[in-house]
Amino acid sequence: MKKITAFLLLLLCLASFGQEDEQNKNFKKVTETETYSTRYSDGKKHISTSEINEYYYNKQGKITQNKRKTFYKNEPYISTRTTYFYNTNNKIDYTETIILEDSLKYRTLYTYQNGEIYKKTTSYTRNNNLTNYNESYNYNLQNELITCVFLYSVMDLYTENLRRNLITTFTYNKKGQMIESDWTKSDSTYKYDRIVHVRNRKGLRTKDKIFNKNNKHLKTVNFKYEFDDKNNWIIMKHYEKRQLTKAIYREIEYYE
Length: 256
Hints:
Helix content is 5%, strand content 62%. By secondary structure, the protein is mainly beta. The model is unreliable at 1-12 and 14-22 (pLDDT under 50).
């Protein structure tokens, strides 16, 4: 149960960011397969699949559905399907997500202010426990996202209530591209990290520098890409100390 609860929190948090470096024009379907590398005690390197995402888009470039399958020890673990519904302004009105293993279904509502997303609200009941998840967004005068506040709570009839307050601050460059994300002001239950995102002229991340709450440099992740004939990346590899740690492979289907 704890694994599934943690997975739900991770799923909700990750849904906030989406595909940051995407240019969704003419995308019909994108399939992303994420793998990671581990070196066992025998010295051999093993490649495992961590998750597979399928993204579906309409002809206006809006995402309509996301199918996600996660793996645990290289075996299928949890599968979800999220469907996106839009309002008359062509902005996301709400999403419906179903966890296929136990048919748990929940809805995330979107609220807007001055044309920008102001809040996302999710709640669901599972095993007599009521879970509430809220995200609040703050912008600067240029309508750039500068702060997100994530509030996660579970009302449990049998154990202590769980409540997490996650706060992240974003910094942008003059092109509106995120160059820093800072989680260090979150509550003590969250791992404190500040990440500096280094980008190339195309806006793609080339390097992530990760620091802890005391501004100590923990590690650097380098990114290398391969592109298709439409100049969209189809392979993104993550390296730490010149060692491949993760790779994402994409299959892109375009509208004609």
